[in-house]
From TrEMBL:
Its cofactor is FAD. This is Acyl-CoA dehydrogenase. The keyword Oxidoreductase applies. PANTHER family: ACYL-COA DEHYDROGENASE, ACYL-COA DEHYDROGENASE FADE28. Gene3D superfamilies: Acyl-CoA dehydrogenase/oxidase, N-terminal domain, Butyryl-CoA Dehydrogenase, subunit A, domain 2, Butyryl-CoA Dehydrogenase, subunit A, domain 3. InterPro entries: Acyl-CoA_Oxase/DH_mid-dom_sf, AcylCo_DH-like_C, AcylCo_DH/oxidase_C, AcylCoA_DH/ox_N, AcylCoA_DH/ox_N_sf, AcylCoA_DH/oxidase_NM_dom_sf. Keywords: FAD, Flavoprotein, Oxidoreductase. It holds the Pfam family Acyl-CoA_dh_N. It comes from Streptomyces lincolnensis. The keyword Oxidoreductase applies. Residues 255-378 form the Acyl-CoA dehydrogenase/oxidase C-terminal domain.
Length: 395
């Protein structure tokens, strides 16, 4: 592994950081999450149109930049630094790789250029609250029981003439209330021949009901989606292996999320260090107290370990090595620790609604709920590496 970044990668990070610093201060962030879309459309147009972020990891023949997952992960490190609410993760990390992996050539040619340009946003919708399970982050997703398992519940897919029709409900769908395209995981085939397939559903399809949910992390909008006999298009064909593709997408998503969390933790630590250098107690800056120095040094060490793991995980996706879940566990823990120490060391203002420290803590907690929890991420990684061969691990 070459740990150095290319001039292009450094340029993307620098340009993106300057753009977000100028256009996404604390007041702009709160205004963006309160909009119906849950993000600033003008900022999204800049991220997509000027910087081409949604197409960073897509091939050039489909309108992308032709970069790697590392390029996308480094960009998301910067968006994580500012908790930038945008459809980037749902569109470029969750949905586009699945369309690229499973879609027919006609579907790729039709959809990917629009996703790469940002003119159309998309998201992945899985039944219930099983996103981590579907992405194989906390256990194997084989069998697809989380999609319905041949019984009532989940999302059911049935033949309707030459097409398909979906019925069911999904929850905690990232940007599900505003996405122009839904990629829905559904169960088909009956109990004896149960299987999980992925379907394309336009955001304005008849019978589709979308309601934005109240989320712990306001910077990651979520929605509940009801499908009431909605016409859908099968992604790829019936021989497409949806479960392995979801697992591969899950590892990539975990690596990108780890970089996001690293960026957020780095920002929290930097602001806390700045604050303790200004806040005085007993006539001295509290940052000069040994106890405070030790606490922040511990955060720094944990952050650097998380950064190394996140960068390695992003690089390893191209080598076929799946370590994203383990990197995500490390990064989420580092972010939670950094945010908690930031709240504590900011004293009386750290826990107030007006201060932004709690937003970083909520990002760590929200991602832990959506893609974890951390101990299950680690347990699944241990099972995959067969660290406890011959022993049963319960979590």
């Amino acid at each position: 592994m070459d740990a150095s970044f290319t001039p292009e990668q450094d340029g993307i990070r620098r340009t993106l950081r300057e753009l977000l610093r100028a256009r996404l201060g604390p007041h702009e962030l709160r205004a963006a999450v309160d909009t119906p879309a849950g993000h600033d459309p003008a900022l999204w147009a800049a991220l997509a149109g000027q910087l081409g972020l949604p197409g960073l990891a897509l091939p050039e023949r489909y309108g992308g930049v032709g970069g790697t997952v590392t390029d996308l992960a480094l960009a998301c490190e910067e968006t994580g630094r500012f908790l930038a609410p945008s459809p980037l993760f749902a569109t470029a990390v969750l949905t586009a790789p699945l369309v690229l992996a499973l879609g027919t050539e006609a579907q790729r040619t039709d959809l990917l250029p629009r996703l790469a340009s940002g003119s159309r946003t998309a998201t992945l919708a899985v039944p219930g609250t099983h996103l981590a399970t579907a992405l194989a982050l906390t256990g194997e997703n084989g069998g697809g029981g989380w999609a319905g398992g041949g019984r009532a519940g989940g999302v059911q897919a049935a033949r309707a003439g030459d097409g398909w029709r979906l019925y069911g409900q999904t929850d905690q769908v990232l940007d599900g209330h505003s996405a122009g395209l839904l990629l829905v995981a559904a169960h088909a085939g009956g109990f004896a021949r149960s299987r999980t397939l992925l379907f394309l559903v336009p955001g304005d399809a008849p019978g589709l009901v979308r309601v934005r949910q109240t989320a712990l992390d306001q910077t990651r909008p979520q929605a509940r989606i009801q499908l009431r006999h909605v016409d859908a298009e099968l992604l790829g064909d019936e021989t497409a292996e949806a479960l392995p593709a979801l697992a591969a997408a899950g590892d990539t998503a975990a690596a990108v999320l780890a970089c996001e969390a690293v960026g957020a933790a780095d920002q929290v630590l930097a602001r806390t260090v700045e604050y303790v250098g200004q806040r005085e107690q007993f006539g001295r800056a509290i940052g000069s107290f040994q106890a405070v120095k030790h606490r922040l040094a511990d955060v720094y060490v944990q952050l650097q370990a998380a950064r190394s793991a996140a960068y390695y995980a992003a690089w390893a996706t191209a080598q076929g090595e799946r370590v994203g879940g383990l990197a995500l566990a490390q990064a989420l823990e580092a972010l939670r620790t950094a945010a908690a120490e930031g709240i504590q060391l900011h004293g009386g203002i750290g826990f107030t609604w007006e201060h932004e420290a709690h937003l970083y803590f909520k990002r760590a907690s929200g991602d832990d709920l959506l893609f974890g929890p951390v101990h299950r991420l680690r347990a699944h990684a241990a099972d995959g590496a067969r660290l406890f061969r011959g022993q049963e691990v319960t979590v």
